[in-house]
């Protein structure tokens, strides 16, 4: 079987899930007394109808691509990093300190992004240390650290980082040298260079995992430390590195969102990107193309939902319901029983194929 | 013993068919596992089901016990139609199965696993459960470890005995609460992890059950055992019945010929030796193998006064010292659980990760081995005892698993980037050479059967360039006849080519066939025999701890 058709088959459950989800959206709209065709139409045109709308989707997808890449790297390395949210916030906080408390100076944006990377890595290193030294499950530690990060940001914007005027719980606007480049100001003022950066980082993360010896070691160390140790790999170092890399990518996401979109630090900076990222990564089968597609789909849902609310009057909350329905459909379509049935119908490669793209 | 059985069987409407299977077919995707198989097991008989890896033995028995449903054909138990909806139904109807892969909950104790099998509910008193477990074990004359121990802490041999006990007890209790033997007992490769004495005990047990009317089916590829215990034998090859009839009509040669057929393109033997004449030439070539290397060579592997305790503080290695020169083959015989796994860990440089109070030193070519990367860097190839857990990463594909050793990975990716096409091509060659099935390098290793996982580990560790030191634990476990012969021949060939080879084995046939210098590991101590190549009896006595000055 050639690689392209293998890819198509791997993404088939996701595609089916999207179709099921849009169908559900139509039904919910109909039940609410709206024309289902118009509602879905508004959902689609609101996300793809114009160059500005597409730019909006790309900007919304960026934090999801980065946190999604972070989750993908962790999950494929046998690490259940549920803490992309906290690492994202840690990255944003660090970038916020650099962006508001230093400068302005040329290259400040770069320094802000780098500090976001380091903060994210540091935030993920704590669970790494606890798993390696004490055997504490990272599922628990990473989730708990999400709350710590959230309240740390809250403390910062109510205290040391609060704006000079002390009006709102938010930081001052970043120095202009900390803003990210605009890619195409004529089309959409919000389209920033972070969009491209996110894509490059995601591709690099995928290549690292699938194509390099380091990637093979990272995956071995996390999935089966005993076998990796017997192979002579430096298991402790590799495991710590996988945590740190995952956190670094999520932290970069926070810094990019701050320097590219919000330009200020505030409590509700993330509507849960780090959690949606888990869905995004799993929707895409833990592979880069699928993950990016998943991020775009969720971003499009968000963008389309606002437009649907304006034009048809269906509440934007419906988009959240569609997100949920999509995940449910993926979960069902991904279960072994359904996978076997698809396989028998010749729609899918048999059983779990290896960790290759 | 067989007289007793015959009388009992006659009394019990001898030869009444218990399990009848007619024209059973089963496909997995494109693979036809069973292609119209007829099989009958009768009350009071011990029936051996023979065949090579992938012949369909396990699949057939899994259809019988309700784990799989047949695509076509008829399954009858005691004359009634028996297409089980589940394994639970099959058990309730009197089919007990002992699986090759252990089906115990590792985090529960022995007694708790038994309580689970018995369907005990409500308040479970550990003391009473333990007492009950001991009573069952005594009733079936199975020696089991402390019922309060967690299964994950037990040796492989102990686990298997718990597994057998669990199957025997099942959920079929007579009204007086005594266990009631099942109508059909199926054992999948039951002797793979047992030592000779334990095999005797098991066989006595099986004969006793048969005498009480149970139909016993053992799935195996050990021919000598079949001839020793089986009343009848059925041979499967590639999903079809090749022969079925009284065991007395066969000898080892005819059984082997029927099992293997003409298809001998399995594990290759390095050099020009073929699997067949490798076995025949054992004595002569082995005799020169070890000594020809000469005492002039400095040892490639030196183990000096290694002692260690396990996590619970028990001494598992006690002052073990030995040397192996290039070209020498050392066979360390021993019953499972006498320190083999621990010694393999120490030799591979990962002892520190799992043992306490590790003392002494291991050197390869004079350089100390403190970590696995030292050992691998010095040219160590290691086939671990638990290949599924230590030898492979199940989620990774076959080609990636073939790179799981530091020097191999470094070579495949000199600058960090893996040349995928080249690695894939090399993997495909190695997979074909060692007969790993299915031969798809992109398949996940976890999807392989046990025997094929072993082949994959062997392909990685023994298939490349000549290692400096080879450490192999039970190298032929789970392999079929042809593959077993060729892996043993390959180990000898590697030694002849100049590697220092250490093989751990609990199988006396294997110890004999490898024809190296023999030592015995007993309770963590390395015992020397009276001669480099002692008689079978002596090895057996040493393995059992007899003749050891306390």
Describe the structure.
By secondary structure, chain A is mostly helical. Chain A has helices at 3-31, 36-48, 51-76, 84-101, 108-134, 138-158, 194-211, 213-223, 225-230, 235-262, 273-283, 288-311, 317-333, 336-344. In chain A, helix 8 (213-223) crosses helix 10. Mean pLDDT of chain A is 86; it is low at 347-357. With 550 residues, chain B is α/β, with parallel strands linked by helices. In chain B, 37% of the residues lie in helices and 23% in strands. In chain B, the strands form four sheets. Chain B has a six-stranded mixed sheet with strand order 6-7-8-3-9-10, with helices on both faces. The relative contact order of chain B is 0.11. The interface between A and B is large, with 28 and 44 residues.
Question: CA-to-CA gap between the ends of chain A?
Answer: 13 Å
The number of domains of chain A is 1
The counted number of beta strands of chain B is 20
Shape estimate of chain B: globular
Structural class of chain A: mainly alpha
CATH architecture of the largest domain in chain B: 3-Layer(aba) Sandwich
Strand content of chain A: under 5%
Count of DSSP H/I helices of chain A: 14
SSE order and pairing:
The complex is a heterodimer of chains A (357) and B (550).
Chain A (H helix, E strand, L loop, with lengths): L2 H29 L4 H13 L2 H26 L7 H18 L6 H27 L3 H21 L35 H18 L1 H11 L1 H6 L4 H28 L10 H11 L4 H24 L5 H17 L2 H9 L13
Helix pairs in contact in A: 1-2, 1-13, 2-3, 2-12, 3-7, 3-10, 3-11, 3-12, 4-5, 4-6, 4-10, 4-11, 5-6, 5-10, 7-8, 8-10, 11-12, 12-13
Chain B lengths: L1 H10 L5 E12 L2 E12 L3 E5 L6 H8 L7 E6 L2 E2 L5 H6 L2 E4 L11 H9 L7 H14 L16 H14 L14 E5 L7 H16 L3 E6 L2 H7 L2 E6 L2 E7 L5 H9 L14 H6 L1 H11 L8 E9 L5 E10 L4 E5 L6 H9 L2 H4 L1 E9 L2 E2 L3 H6 L2 E4 L3 H5 L6 H4 L4 H7 L7 H14 L16 H13 L6 E5 L7 H16 L3 E6 L2 H7 L2 E6 L2 E4 L7 H8 L7
Parallel strand pairs in B: 3-8, 3-9, 6-7, 7-8, 13-18, 13-19, 16-17, 17-18
Antiparallel strand pairs in B: 1-2, 1-4, 4-5, 9-10, 11-12, 11-14, 14-15, 19-20
């Amino acid at each position: 079987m050639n690689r392209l058709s293998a890819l198509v088959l791997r993404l088939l459950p996701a595609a089916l899930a999207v179709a099921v989800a849009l169908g559900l959206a139509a039904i919910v709209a109909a039940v609410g007394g709206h024309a289902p065709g118009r509602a879905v139409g508004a959902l689609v045109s609101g996300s793809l109808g114009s160059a500005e709308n597409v730019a909006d989707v790309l900007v919304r997808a960026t934090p999801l691509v980065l946190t999604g890449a972070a989750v993908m790297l962790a999950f494929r390395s046998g690490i259940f990093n549920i803490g992309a949210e906290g690492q994202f916030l840690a990255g944003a906080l660090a970038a916020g300190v650099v962006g508001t408390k230093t400068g302005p100076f040329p290259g400040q944006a770069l320094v802000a992004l780098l500090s976001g990377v380091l903060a994210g890595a540091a935030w993920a290193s704590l669970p790494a240390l606890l798993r390696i030294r004490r055997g504490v499950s990272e599922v628990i530690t990473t989730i708990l650290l999400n709350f710590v990060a959230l309240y740390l940001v809250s403390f910062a914007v109510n205290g040391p980082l609060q704006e000079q005027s002390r009006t709102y719980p938010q930081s001052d606007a970043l120095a202009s040298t900390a803003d990210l480049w605009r890619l195409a100001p004529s089309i959409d003022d919000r389209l920033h260079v972070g969009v491209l950066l996110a894509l490059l980082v995601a591709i690099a993360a995928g290549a690292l995992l699938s194509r390099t010896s380091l990637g093979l070691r990272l995956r071995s160390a996390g999935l089966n430390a005993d076998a990796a140790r017997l192979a002579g790999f430096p298991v402790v170092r590799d495991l710590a590195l996988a945590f740190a890399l995952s956190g670094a990518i999520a932290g970069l996401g926070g810094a990019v969102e701050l320097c590219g979109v919000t330009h200020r630090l505030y409590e509700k900076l993330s509507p849960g990107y780090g959690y949606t990222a888990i869905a995004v990564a799993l929707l895409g089968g833990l592979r880069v193309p699928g993950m990016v597609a998943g991020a775009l789909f969720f971003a499009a849902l968000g963008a389309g939902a606002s437009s649907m609310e304006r034009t048809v009057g269906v509440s934007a909350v419906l988009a959240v319901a569609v997100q949920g329905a999509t995940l449910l459909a993926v979960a069902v379509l991904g279960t072994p029983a359904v996978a076997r049935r698809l396989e028998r119908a010749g729609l899918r490669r048999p059983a779990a194929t290896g960790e290759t793209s | 013993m067989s007289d007793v059985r015959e009388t009992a069987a006659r009394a019990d409407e001898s030869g009444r068919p218990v399990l009848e299977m007619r024209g059973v077919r089963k496909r997995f995707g494109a693979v036809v596992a069973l292609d119209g198989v007829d099989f009958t097991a009768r009350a009071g008989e011990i029936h051996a089901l023979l065949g090579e890896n992938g012949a369909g033995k396990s699949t057939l028995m899994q259809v019988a016990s309700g784990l799989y449903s047949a695509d076509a054909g008829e399954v009858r138990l005691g004359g009634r139609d028996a297409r089980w909806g589940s394994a639970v139904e099959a058990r309730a109807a009197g089919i007990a199965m002992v699986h090759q892969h252990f089906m115990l909950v590792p985090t529960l104790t022995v007694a708790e696993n038994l309580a689970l099998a018995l369907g005990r509910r409500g308040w479970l008193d550990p003391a009473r459960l333990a007492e009950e477990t001991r009573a069952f074990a005594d009733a079936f004359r199975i020696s089991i470890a402390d019922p309060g121990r967690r299964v994950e802490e037990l040796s492989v041999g102990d686990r298997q005995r718990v597994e057998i006990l669990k199957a025997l007890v099942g959920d079929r209790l007579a009204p007086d609460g005594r266990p009631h033997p099942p109508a059909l007992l199926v054992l999948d490769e039951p002797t793979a992890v047992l030592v000779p004495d334990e095999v005797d005990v098991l066989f006595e047990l099986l004969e006793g059950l048969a005498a009480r009317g149970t139909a016993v089916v053992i799935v195996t590829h050990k021919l000598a055992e079949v001839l020793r215990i089986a009343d009848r034998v059925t041979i499967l090859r590639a999903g079809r019945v090749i022969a079925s009839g009284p065991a007395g009509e066969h000898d080892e040669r005819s059984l082997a010929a029927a099992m293997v057929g003409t298809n001998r393109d399995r594990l290759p033997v390095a050099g020009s030796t073929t699997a067949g004449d490798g076995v025949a030439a054992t004595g002569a070539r082995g005799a020169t193998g070890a000594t020809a290397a000469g005492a002039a060579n400095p040892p490639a592997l030196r183990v000096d006064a290694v002692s260690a305790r396990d996590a619970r503080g028990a001494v598992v290695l006690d002052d073990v010292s030995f040397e192996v020169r290039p070209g020498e083959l050392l066979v360390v015989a021993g019953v499972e659980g006498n320190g083999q796994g621990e010694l393999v860990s120490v030799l591979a440089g990962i002892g520190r990760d799992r043992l306490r109070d590790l003392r002494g030193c291991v050197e390869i070519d004079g350089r100390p081995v403190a970590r696995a990367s030292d050992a691998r860097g010095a040219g160590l190839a290691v086939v671990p005892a638990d290949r599924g857990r230590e030898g492979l990463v199940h989620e990774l594909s076959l080609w990636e698993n073939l790179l799981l050793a530091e020097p191999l990975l470094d070579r495949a990716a000199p600058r960090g980037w893996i040349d995928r096409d080249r690695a894939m091509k090399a993997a495909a060659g190695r997979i074909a050479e060692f007969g790993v099935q299915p031969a798809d390098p992109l398949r996940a290793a976890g999807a392989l059967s046990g025997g094929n996982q072993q082949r994959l580990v062997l392909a990685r560790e023994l298939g490349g360039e000549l290692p400096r030191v080879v450490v192999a634990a039970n190298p032929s476990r789970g392999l079929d006849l042809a593959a077993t012969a060729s892996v043993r021949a390959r180990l000898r060939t590697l030694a002849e080519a100049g590697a220092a080879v250490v093989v751990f084995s609990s199988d006396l046939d294997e110890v004999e066939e490898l024809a190296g210098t023999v030592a015995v590991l007993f309770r963590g101590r390395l015992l020397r025999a009276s001669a480099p190549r002692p008689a079978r009896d002596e090895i057996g006595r040493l393995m059992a701890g007899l003749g050891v000055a306390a």
